[in-house]
Amino acid sequence: MGSTWAVVPAAGRSTRMGGEVNKQLLYLAGRPVVEHSLRALLAVPVAGVILVTTPGEERSFAGILGDLVPGNKIIIVAGGNSRRDSVRQGLEALPAGVELVVVHDGARPLVKPGLVRAAIEEAQRWGASTLAVPVKDTVKLAGPDNLVRETLPRELLWQVQTPQVFNLDLLLEAHRAAERDAFEGTDDASLVERLGRPVKLVPGDYTNIKITTPDDIFLAEKIMGS
After folding, report:
1. How far is Cα 7 from Cα 108, in angstroms, rounded to an integer?
2. pTM of the prediction?
3. What is the Cα 213 distance to its own chain's centre?
4. What is the mean pLDDT of residues 113-134?
């Protein structure tokens, strides 16, 4: 049986944070956001992590993660022009013998190791899985004129999170097809869905937020302190 590794996309300029600093490098409860994400994955445990950064930021990430690297397999690589390209760069950096890959946003620092393990177990059965939570609010489909076209059935709607876990060969096939068709997608599960393959939804946690705006840092600190 092959091993399980993680690919953590942590590239981007974070314009919605109101500055030029990568949001993964911002501090949350005394540690960089991305360090919380990595520690959660290593606690699962995964065999190793490919951390994908914005080109030119490799040293910055290596510097702040200095005390985490010894004893753990953390490989830092430069990403591409899009999230899809960055994940593909991470996949290509994986060592031989990997069976499952856990793709997790570096900006989701509050993920719980137990939920990562649950996603891994479902991916072993189905080939692909993703954490998700049921949508709480009513969702409406609008046209280009912002007039409501349809109210979607809330009981069928899920808000997708990461990690998303895949059989490595399946995810590579999905990325090759997406590249061929110039399909970017908003997550890796959407690439697999295009192949007609099942993706299992694994109930997640509403506290597994993505750090996108300054308010999210304050919210994450409150969640961690509660």
Report:
1. 13
2. 0.94
3. 17
4. 99
Respond yes or no on whether the N-terminal peptide bond of residue 163 is cis (omega within 30° of 0): yes
Fold of the 3-130+160-225 domain: Spore Coat Polysaccharide Biosynthesis Protein SpsA; Chain A (3.90.550)
- For the chain, the structural domain boundaries read 3-130+160-225
In this structure, of 9-18, 56-65, 141-150, the range with the lowest mean pLDDT score is 9-18
Looking at the DSSP bridge assignments, the partners of residue 87 are none
**Full strand arrangement of the beta sheet holding 48-53:** 74-78, 48-53, 3-10, 98-103, 158-167, 128-134, 200-203
**Confidence category of residue 33, pLDDT binned at 50, 70, 90:** very high
Residue 15: band (very low, low, confident or very high) from pLDDT cuts 50, 70, 90: low
Q: Compute, in degrees rounded to 10, the torsion defined by CA atoms 12, 85, 159, 122.
A: -130
Q: Residue 117's closest CA among 96, 100, 133?
A: 100
Tokens of 42: 């290593």
